[in-house]
Amino acid sequence: MSLILALIRRDLMLSIRQGGGAGTALGFFLTVVVLLPIGIGPDQALLARIAPGALWIALLLSVLLSADRIFQQDYEDGSLDIMTMGPVPFEMVALAKAVAHWLSTSLPLAIAAPILGFLVNLEAAAVLPLTLAMALGSIALSFLASIGAAVTVGLRRGGLLVSVLVLPLYVPVLIFGLSASDPGAAPGLTFAALLILAAIALVSLVLSPLAAAAALRAYLR
User: Fold this and answer.
1) Residue 210 has pLDDT above 90, yes or no
2) What does the chain look like in DSSP terms, one character per residue?
3) Has residue 103 got a pLDDT over 80?
4) What is the pLDDT of residues 21-73, one digit of tens each?
5) How far apart are CA 162 and CA 145, in angstroms?
6) The pLDDT of residue 158
7) Environment class of residue 210 by beta-carbon count within 10 Å: exposed (0-12), middle (13-18) or buried (19+)?
8) Are 174 and 133 in contact (CB under 8 A)?
9) What Rg do the C-alpha atoms of the chain give, in angstroms?
10) pLDDT tens digits, residue range 166-201?
């Protein structure tokens, strides 16, 4: 367990020092949120209606933008080859790197999105459900992204292929995330959507490290 925590801490420190993936994702997210009201116009009612969907799509695309970096650096410097021979099961290595991506990129964006929602006229009643839904959904986003990152780890332009592979997997997260974020929906429907979103996050938490580790092993042979 200590080795896994050390790996997560290492990836977090590298993310803070380099700032490439997380900084790019945050910059893209801010750009979308700032430019959207300019493109839509001064219709405040329209902005309020589309605000949850716009924030979810901005979150989804921002996570995708940094997904290819989950394993890329370790592949390029040879660390992945060493990890396959280490004492930690490779599935746990994939889990640790997905957790590090979630902590450094997805979770900060999920927390910042409702706060920045005032730029798109987000209703006050939607802030809490949107925060809960995005916190859960961001887990699935990072872990599903790790599968695409593992499949494309050795490709020069893997970022585009990651998007093509992962976007279909993101559709259920987006659908139930929006349902859980709707302040006008019945409380029972919102709670049910939140439970389904939590189930998707748990399934991705269990299955994604297995799939990512299998893809990495196949590529490193």
Assistant:
1) yes
2) -HHHHHHHHHHHHHHHHH-HHHHHHHHHHHHHHHHHHHHH-S-HHHHHHHHHHHHHHHHHHHHHHTTTHHHHHHHHTTHHHHHHTSSS-HHHHHHHHHHHHIIIIIHHHHHHHHHGGGGGT--GGGHHHHHHHHHHHHHHHHHHHHHHHHHTTT-TTHHHHHHHHHHHHHHHHHHHHHHHH-TTS-HHHHHHHHHHHHHHHHHHHHHHHHHHHHHHHHHH-
3) yes
4) 667 788 888 888 888 888 887 778 888 888 888 899 999 988 888 887 788 77
5) 7
6) 56
7) middle
8) no
9) 18
10) 888 999 999 999 988 877 777 778 889 999 999 999
Rounded to an integer, what distance in angstroms lies between the CA atom of residue 140 and that of residue 205?
Answer: 7
Sign of the Cα pseudo-torsion (172, 175, 178, 183, in order): negative
Contact residues for 137 (Cβ-Cβ < 8 A; gap 6+): 56, 59, 110, 173, 176, 177, 197, 200, 201
Give the pLDDT of residue 28. 86
Please give the single-letter amino acid code of residue 170.
Answer: Y
Q: Which residues contact 10 (CB under 8 A, 6 or more apart)?
A: none
pLDDT digits (tens, 9 = 90+) for 108-155: 899 988 888 888 888 888 888 899 999 999 999 999 999 988 888 877
Identify the residue whose tokens are 């020092």: 17
CB 27 within 8 A of CB 102: no
